[in-house]
Amino acid sequence: MRKRLGDILVESGVISQKQLEDALDEQKRSKRRLGEILISKGILDEDAIADVLSNQLRLERVRLRNTVISPDVVRIIPESVARRYNIVPVSLHGDTLKVAFSDPLDVRAQDELSFLTGYRIEPVVATPSEISQTIENLYSIKEEARRLVESIAANRREATPEAEVEENAPVVKLVNYIISRAVEEGASDIHFEPQEDGLLIRYRVDGLLRYVEQFSLDMALPVVSRLKIMAGMDIAEKRLPQDGRVVLRVGDKDVDIRISTLPTVYGEKVVLRLLDRTSILIGLEKLGLLEDDMKKILQMISHPY
Questions:
Q1: What is the spatial distance between Cα 51 and Cα 60, in angstroms, rounded to a whole number?
Q2: What DSSP line would sit under 204-271, residue for residue?
Q3: Which of 89, 125, 169, 243 is the most buried (most CB within 10 A)?
């Protein structure tokens, strides 16, 4: 007989038998998960539960915020399944798929994943909020973006360069949507990378490049053309690197966007550097530097190279 979460928490000493019994009584009335109840009562937090499960079950504890997940791994588990069980695929090694669970005791979910994917499932532990946020990061852009992509493809035959500049054009909405999502998620860069099998879009968040979405390669030309128009670049020039900038209003923020293009084998790669104009910048004089150090820094940053 497999252990239950409550028994594991009591055995590890993080809650008492009385606290477990009270929580189980409430669970019968509310039908909520035991972990949710303990957290809502302030008895434990998510990290404490995840740490106990990791230690007691001898499973790896992952910090998804600091984990880079390959787009090939993301495609293995459909979004609907990831949301149903609140799970995230982490990595693939041979015939073993590592999956982050907030409830690694859910054997039925593991069996279904194994049947669905054809891989042996190796459960690892993460908090529910970590998993939920990662699902949003990995999957949520897809529905809206793909709807816009379908609209672009449907109108592609009769579209003209002038039409694609109009603010209600699907490609304009798609680019604006990708940029606004990047700002919401605190990204510093957006990479549009044409590759052999499609147009890859990645955000740089907290210094790490993270997969966002991949469209068919025929989307590269309209998307890159729109970005060039925004930055005042020459649309016809595809063989030389170009640089430009634009200021967009995203929500209540003015975002300064530096746009750079670089020719590649499969088309032009575009990188957007996002600079939030409303963010608070701290002056050198407020960093607590000694007067001599301040003079040295001012002298050094005045040099042209």
A1: 9
A2: EETTEEEEEEEE-GGGHHHHHHHHHHHHT--TT--SS-EEEEEEEEETTEEEEEEEEEEEETTEEEEE
A3: 89
Q: 3-class SS at 97?
A: strand
Answering whether pTM is above 0.85, one says no
| Side-by-side strand order, sheet with 120-125 | 87-93, 96-101, 120-125
CB neighbours of residue 261 within 10 Å = 24
In the chain, the amino acid numbered 148 is: L
Nearest CA to 261 out of 226, 212, 211 is that of 226
Q: What is d(CA 216, CA 198) in angstroms, rounded to the nearest whole number?
A: 4
- Please give the torsion angle defined by the CA atoms of residues 278, 284, 285 and 286, in that order, rounded to the nearest 10 degrees: 60
What is the C-alpha to C-alpha distance for residues 205 and 191, in angstroms, rounded to an integer?
12
pLDDT number for residue 189: 95
